[in-house]
């Protein structure tokens, strides 16, 4: 492997480029018309245009991305997260073209991409799974969906089988709402994912979202690198992540991490992945949610606590330069927190706030402060893509010290030209419940009046 094409944009493309350059590998960026002057284009050794601003005609166009790899003589492709990262057909097309796919085997992507099938595999691996239903295609009968809902119990979630990142997920409290919500979700899922199937899952009222970082070596050996708490969310999407999960009993943490690694071993999983769980905040019972067969947005908190470079590990495994890592070689030290900085207006239900970054200053990086960013001052945050501006990650010896370091770092951020969620983040981290580790997926909704000016 000599040259890696990054099939992505923004901060994750910049992040991958940095690891490639540290490993002595050349990089190729791809870009849409809207990203011609983007930071990832400037950082890469080469850059290839792949089409219009609309993602479907550029970053999601497998033909154009593969043509860019061929024309640049790249010999490997890293998909990052989002876009084509969990697209089985794209992964297979890359491999069929004779290129190295820096990611899990397509069979694993296929198995875990369908949430209903993933639940079945998790059950077989001994992972606790929430009560749920089978898949319901758009032509399923209303009566069949209603019967399944009675068996699952209310409240419940209608979830798109092919969804992810909180997209395609609706809560149902009243049986009268079930079929209309199910049909609306099927329609949305068909448009967003090309698959209109949904399934039903029991809703945990006082829930935490905890996930385990795993890494498989493709030979039945896999390790975990600890867990992350991602409970602070808005619209089912994460905004603050931390490791380790505060207040999680050691026995629960150990079992959760072990069953996550077991699931990977059963699949002979290759590379980085994340097994996500919903945890009852009262009983600490945990249940399988999904597995993401890619690098996660929040992977830096794990890197800060374990001293690893997960992207470099992905690359080294793909080029067969990574020896299997024994579990006892993984060390977890201190506490790390990540905040996602978005161009959005928290006072208007977190609506995106596109525009030009007229002034943009982030804290200076140090041993305890990391900045992962895909934009510069003067760049445009467009409505075509996710409005995340940057990720700020802080690490310290204790959770209390990490929170203080993060608050100090957030206080150094300057963003002008677009609305941002910086003030919201500072209020969230300073809230007494967050300080005490009392965070659930309902934290933002519960405290919305205190966290915003809505």
TrEMBL record:
<keyword id="KW-0067">ATP-binding</keyword>
<comment type="subunit">
    <text>Acetyl-CoA carboxylase is a heterohexamer of biotin carboxyl carrier protein, biotin carboxylase and the two subunits of carboxyl transferase in a 2:2 complex.</text>
</comment>
<dbReference type="InterPro" id="IPR050856">
    <property type="entry name" value="Biotin_carboxylase_complex"/>
</dbReference>
<feature type="domain" description="ATP-grasp">
    <location>
        <begin position="119"/>
        <end position="319"/>
    </location>
</feature>
<dbReference type="InterPro" id="IPR011764">
    <property type="entry name" value="Biotin_carboxylation_dom"/>
</dbReference>
<protein>
    <recommendedName>
        <fullName>Biotin carboxylase</fullName>
    </recommendedName>
</protein>
<dbReference type="InterPro" id="IPR011054">
    <property type="entry name" value="Rudment_hybrid_motif"/>
</dbReference>
<dbReference type="InterPro" id="IPR016185">
    <property type="entry name" value="PreATP-grasp_dom_sf"/>
</dbReference>
<dbReference type="Pfam" id="PF02786">
    <property type="entry name" value="CPSase_L_D2"/>
</dbReference>
<dbReference type="InterPro" id="IPR005482">
    <property type="entry name" value="Biotin_COase_C"/>
</dbReference>
<dbReference type="InterPro" id="IPR005481">
    <property type="entry name" value="BC-like_N"/>
</dbReference>
<feature type="domain" description="Biotin carboxylation">
    <location>
        <begin position="1"/>
        <end position="449"/>
    </location>
</feature>
<dbReference type="GO" id="GO:0004075">
    <property type="term" value="F:biotin carboxylase activity"/>
</dbReference>
<keyword id="KW-0547">Nucleotide-binding</keyword>
<dbReference type="GO" id="GO:0046872">
    <property type="term" value="F:metal ion binding"/>
</dbReference>
<dbReference type="Pfam" id="PF00289">
    <property type="entry name" value="Biotin_carb_N"/>
</dbReference>
<keyword id="KW-0436">Ligase</keyword>
<dbReference type="InterPro" id="IPR005479">
    <property type="entry name" value="CPAse_ATP-bd"/>
</dbReference>
<keyword id="KW-0092">Biotin</keyword>
<comment type="function">
    <text>This protein is a component of the acetyl coenzyme A carboxylase complex; first, biotin carboxylase catalyzes the carboxylation of the carrier protein and then the transcarboxylase transfers the carboxyl group to form malonyl-CoA.</text>
</comment>
<dbReference type="Pfam" id="PF02785">
    <property type="entry name" value="Biotin_carb_C"/>
</dbReference>
<comment type="pathway">
    <text>Lipid metabolism; malonyl-CoA biosynthesis; malonyl-CoA from acetyl-CoA: step 1/1.</text>
</comment>
<dbReference type="InterPro" id="IPR011761">
    <property type="entry name" value="ATP-grasp"/>
</dbReference>
<dbReference type="GO" id="GO:0005524">
    <property type="term" value="F:ATP binding"/>
</dbReference>
């Amino acid at each position: 492997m000599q040259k890696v094409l990054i099939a992505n944009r923004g901060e994750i493309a910049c992040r991958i480029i940095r690891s490639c350059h540290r490993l002595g590998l050349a990089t190729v960026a791809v870009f849409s018309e809207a990203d011609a002057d983007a930071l990832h284009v400037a950082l890469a050794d080469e850059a290839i245009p792949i089409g219009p601003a609309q993602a479907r005609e550029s970053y999601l166009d497998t033909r154009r991305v593969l043509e860019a790899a061929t024309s640049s003589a790249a010999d490997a492709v890293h998909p990052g997260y989002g876009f084509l990262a969990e697209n089985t057909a794209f992964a297979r097309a890359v491999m069929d073209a004779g290129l190295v796919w820096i990611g899990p085997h397509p069979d694993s992507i296929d198995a875990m991409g369908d949430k209903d099938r993933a639940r079945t595999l998790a059950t077989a691996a001994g992972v606790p799974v929430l009560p749920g239903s089978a898949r319901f295609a758009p032509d399923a009968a209303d009566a069949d969906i209603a019967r399944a809902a009675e068996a699952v119990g209310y409240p419940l979630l209608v979830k798109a089988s092919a969804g992810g990142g909180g997209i395609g997920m609706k809560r149902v409290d009243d049986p009268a709402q079930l079929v209309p919500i199910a049909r609306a979700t099927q329609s949305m899922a068909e448009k967003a994912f090309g698959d209109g199937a949904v399934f039903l899952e029991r809703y945990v009222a006082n829930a935490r979202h905890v996930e385990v970082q795993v890494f498989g070596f493709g030979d039945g050996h896999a390790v975990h690198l600890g867990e992350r708490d991602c409970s602070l969310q808005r619209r089912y999407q994460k905004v603050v992540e931390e490791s380790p999960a505060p207040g999680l009993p050691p026995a629960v943490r150990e079992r959760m991490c072990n069953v996550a690694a077991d699931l990977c071993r059963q699949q002979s999983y290759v590379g980085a992945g994340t097994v996500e769980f919903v945890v009852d905040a009262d009983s600490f019972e945990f249940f399988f949610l999904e597995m993401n067969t890619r690098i996660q947005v929040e992977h830096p908190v794990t890197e800060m606590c374990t001293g690893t470079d997960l992207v470099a590990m992905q690359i080294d495994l793909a080029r067969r330069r990574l020896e299997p890592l024994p579990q006892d070689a993984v060390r977890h030290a201190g506490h790390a927190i990540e905040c996602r900085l978005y161009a959005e207006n928290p006072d208007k239900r977190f609506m995106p706030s596109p525009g030009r970054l007229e002034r943009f200053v982030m804290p200076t990086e140090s041993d305890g402060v990391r900045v992962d960013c895909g934009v510069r001052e003067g760049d445009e945050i467009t409505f075509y893509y996710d409005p995340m501006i940057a990720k700020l990650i802080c690490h310290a010896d204790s959770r209390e010290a990490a929170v203080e370091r993060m608050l100090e770092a957030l206080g150094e951020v300057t963003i002008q030209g677009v609305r941002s969620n910086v003030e919201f983040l500072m209020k969230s981290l300073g809230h007494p419940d967050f300080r005490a580790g009392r965070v659930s997926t309902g934290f933002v909704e519960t405290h919305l009046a205190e966290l915003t000016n809505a």
